[in-house]
Specification:
- The complex is a heterodimer.
- By secondary structure, chain A is an all-beta fold.
- Helices cover about 0% and strands about 50% of the residues of chain A.
- In chain A, about 35% of the residues are buried.
- In chain B, about 0% of the residues lie in helices and about 50% in strands.
- In chain B, strands 2, 4, 5, 9, 10 and 11 form a six-stranded mixed β-sheet that branches. Chain B has a five-stranded antiparallel β-sheet with strand order 1-3-8-7-6, with no helix packed on it.
- The relative contact order of chain B is 0.34.
- The chains are: A mainly beta, B mainly beta.
- Chains A and B meet through strand 5, strand 9 and strand 10 of A and strand 5 of B.
Chain lengths: ~120, ~110
């Protein structure tokens, strides 16, 4: 199957700082990537849909100024958590679909554990 | 209408037994139903997926049963093994448009040796 690589796997940052998480599709082009947040023992919550070359689409209740998404190429999307606070500590996961009509399978990255202290 | 309801929340099965996880959806526009397996600290991995034009799909020990009229689908794991212990998520999406996945709540499966 296709590979989606997320970096870093874990990060600890101080409250008030910003953290950038990268999501790369290694062997395919992805017009659309998705960013999820997952709290312990809970399901994945979609935060936003990242579209190459255009603005991301955020889900209701997700602060677009706090979670900045950039999808500058067909293989890279980044999520920046700005002015992070302890309540932003979570497991962040990206996924990507192949470009092309009716492509369905979503490939997930390994996730990034963010801890804000 | 976007919800996917998954049950049970947790499941314990003896080695060699059959693990069954159920999901129900409401949006009849959904036409793609994948199951994901997630180990602690890892991202979800696709196990098997089905489209509504078939009632069953089997891949190795994993089978999806799909009931379009009842708007339900289930995952069966045959000959369950300790290595199958993980959290399983069902999901649904539309193949056209944004193709956003809607996830179920997850089932924590434990296979006892």
């Amino acid at each position: 199957g296709a590979v989606v690589s997320q970096h870093p796997s874990w990060v600890i940052c101080k409250s008030g700082t910003s953290v950038k998480i990268e999501c790369r599709s290694l062997d395919f082009q992805a017009t659309t990537m998705f960013w999820y947040r997952q709290f312990p023992k809970q399901s994945l919550m979609l935060m936003a849909t990242s579209n190459e070359g255009s603005k991301a689409t955020y889900e209701q209740g997700v602060e677009k100024d706090k979670f900045l998404i950039n999808h500058a190429s067909l293989t890279l999307s980044t999520l920046t958590v700005t002015s992070a606070h302890p309540e932003d500590s979570s497991f962040y996961i990206c996924s990507a679909r192949r470009s092309g009509a009716l492509a369905t399978e979503a490939f997930f990255g390994q996730g990034t554990r963010l801890t804000v202290v | 209408q976007q919800q996917v309801k998954q049950s049970p929340q947790s499941l314990i099965v003896q080695k060699g037994g059959i693990s069954i996880i159920n999901c129900a959806y409401e949006n009849t526009a959904f036409d793609y139903f994948p199951w994901y397996q997630q180990f602690p600290g890892k991202g979800p991995a696709l196990l098997i997926a089905i489209r509504p034009d078939v009632s069953e799909k089997k891949e190795g020990r994993f089978t999806i049963s799909f009931n379009k009229s009842a708007k339900q689908f289930s995952l069966h794991i045959m000959d369950s093994q300790p290595g199958d212990s993980a959290t399983y998520f069902c999901a649904a999406s539309m193949r056209k448009g944004a193709q956003k996945l809607v996830f179920g709540q997850g089932t924590r499966l434990t296979i006892n040796p």
